[in-house]
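Appendix B, example 12.
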Amino acid sequence: MTTFDDRERGFESKFVLDSEQQFRAEARRNHLLGVWAGNLLGKSGQELEDYAMDLVKLEVKAPGTEDIVNRVAGDLAGKVTPDEVRSRLGDFMRIAKSQIQNDI
């Protein structure tokens, strides 16, 4: 083994870890968004959790945020705009990353 091979393996390991953490952060962000939106819709208990998990699953089925933005903005029509949903996504991503870093 050479130093180059060791560095290459190190970069590959870091890429895998970063990708995994990004996936976890996006899932957590979507869950937080679902809880926020579900509360605005008057959901509680299992219904609230199911709604939040639907948003997590939506990201897995169709990567990217626009499907989530459209779904939540549609569900909350008249209460929030798509831009407000996008803003909340940004807020919740910061929270999700912080929670993951702090292992919450």
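The CA atoms of residues 21 and 101 lie 9 Å apart. The radius of gyration is 17 Å.
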